[in-house]
């Protein structure tokens, strides 16, 4: 359950090495989140993330999780929920891909879609069912403004996020009245390891900015969070631009 600060007492992170997820976990631990599960592929980076969060006072455990292995999700994530109530799940895994390469190699494009969308549908439904069974909890889904309208520069990634965003919104509607909240987070360009070397886009933010917005959204029980907030207005305009004009924009 959430404490007086609106922070979950326990947190499951899917994508345990995500810079945004770890920034969020640090903020929540400072607000008295006491148990954290970091789910991801076994790696020194996952172990280091767990050690760092333990140093902040949380009971942290790592979980072997592969977004592409949907067949394992029910068992793997079921074991986490069997250990006790999970107050919040942060779904923060995903890949950007390489647009030029992925257009030339269809199977690489499929991997982007399977990770960002198919894997998220599988894990999201498993977690939503478990949260509903316990009668409470929040599912935070890290989407992207790239899913609002496909751009020539990244339409493979953008289309996968568009599917994820629509899925999360529908799931939230389906869970109304169950005690389970679904919050969709739509950041713009975020300065992370994944975007290093890419041209920086207008209204760029960092992992800490997204983390702050997530924590605020959990406290307010928001359904949709834009980071930065001004992107809501920007994307409302871009969404309705005629395609010939949209193609000519430097985005």
UniProtKB/TrEMBL annotation:
Keywords: Oxidoreductase. The keyword Oxidoreductase applies. Signal peptide: none annotated. The keyword Oxidoreductase applies. Belongs to the short-chain dehydrogenases/reductases (SDR) family. NCBIfam families: PRK07904.1. This is Short-chain dehydrogenase.
């Amino acid at each position: 359950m959430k404490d007086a600060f609106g922070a979950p007492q326990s947190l499951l992170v899917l994508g345990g090495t995500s810079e945004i997820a770890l920034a969020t976990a640090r903020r929540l631990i400072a607000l008295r989140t006491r148990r954290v599960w970091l789910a991801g592929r076994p790696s020194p980076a996952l172990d280091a993330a767990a050690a760092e969060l333990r140093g902040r006072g949380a009971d942290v455990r790592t979980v072997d999780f592969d977004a592409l292995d949907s067949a394992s999700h029910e068992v793997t994530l079921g074991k986490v929920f069997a250990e006790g109530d999970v107050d919040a799940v942060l779904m923060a895994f995903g890949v950007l891909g390489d647009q030029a390469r992925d257009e030339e190699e269809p199977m690489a494009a499929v991997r982007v879609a399977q990770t960002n969308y198919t894997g998220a549908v599988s894990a999201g439904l498993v977690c939503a069912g478990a949260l509903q069974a316990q009668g409470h909890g929040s599912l935070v889904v890290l989407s992207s403004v790239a899913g609002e309208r496909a751009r020539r520069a990244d339409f493979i990634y953008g289309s996968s996020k568009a599917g994820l965003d629509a899925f999360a919104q529908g799931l939230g509607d389906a869970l109304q009245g169950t005690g389970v909240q679904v919050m969709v987070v739509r950041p713009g360009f975020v300065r992370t390891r994944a975007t290093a070397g890419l041209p920086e886009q207008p209204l760029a933010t960092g992992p800490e900015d997204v983390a702050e917005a997530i924590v605020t959204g959990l406290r307010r029980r928001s359904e949709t969070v834009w980071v930065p907030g001004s992107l809501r207005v920007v994307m409302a305009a871009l969404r309705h631009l005629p395609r010939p004009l949209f193609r000519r924009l430097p985005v």
